[in-house]
Amino acid sequence: MLDSPNFRRLMAALAVSQLGDWLYNAALLAFVYERTHSAGWLSATTVARVLPIVLLGPAAGLLGDRFDRRLVMIASDVARVGAMLGLVAVAHYGLAVWLVPALAAFATAAASPYPPCVAASLPRLLPREQLPAANALRAAIGPLAIITGPVLGAGVLAVAGAGWAFGINALTFAASALLVLAVPDRSAFRPTPGSEQQPGLWAAVTLGARELLRRPDASRLVGADILCSLCYGMQTVALVAISVRLGWHESGYGLLLAAIGAGGLLGTGIAPRALRRFSRGAVLSLALLAVAVSLPLMASLPSPVAVLLASLASGAGSLIVEVGAETVLQEQLPDEVFARAYGFAFPASIGGIALGAAIVAPLVALLGRTGALALAGALVAGYALWLHGARAYSRPLVAH
After folding, report:
1. Pair 166, 314 in one domain
2. What value does the mean pLDDT take over residues 278-285?
């Protein structure tokens, strides 16, 4: 299973760059706060780091459908090396602080074609029956990087300073580019003949969205993934108050987030086996119900251990939904438009996190913490029941 050297090189490239990204993220905000002591600058830097992938995702997907995906990924890595070296210069020479969010935004914009290119290349590197396991492994890289990257970033920041953290991240992008360059199967990255013939830029960019809407199976699962992201966005804000309620004060926030990440890793182990063996509707609906039930339990359970277990269940359910959604996209979407469709689905998921973080405070003010999370859980539960009723999900994702 997953013994393709080409696949392993591609996953190694993704892993090393994501680890560097989370290392750099921790150092970035610490550096900005050290220079400015301003919450406004922290907010501006965070927005600059996230917003480009939401805005540019659809257009970035077009690059993956029109051009050699390997070259697009290498160009993305090289551009990010340049951005990190720019941040090294800011840290070393004490340049204007506004350059920090500007360079962070440029790095994120340069990264936007990378996820669609990786997702679009997997069906060419692996047989169809291995796609759930491949997507699970790819999904596991994110939680692992989230757990280890900030710890390494804090260590580098404490020992050597922010400039070294930015420089190390530049090295991870260089290593990623070399690993992608080392994949000998160039045919896996070439665009499908005829994909460049779509007339008009707007028509070419929006073709992926139209293809998603034409395929209810895929669009329903993208909707499920967005709902899970919205719940995660709400959790990122609500977990502070939950930690205080448990007597952990603000320091428990990281522990609860780590429990969600650990649940994600658990979900990546469960997803490929469950999706191969059982009805996709049953598996994905149960995963959504795990997310739905966990939300009010996290807000109301008195036991810290029980809250950690609910966090674990939430992370596992969300990752199972993500793996299922991405596998269905790879099964159903034509190769010549896949990157563009993924270029809508992935930013929409990121946007769901931002929306959840934005709405949770007014919902808590209106309904209370438990009421706000219970409302979100009811929405997810209703979606799970609707998804389970769709006939298209009565079979396993991939034939035995």
Report:
1. no
2. 85
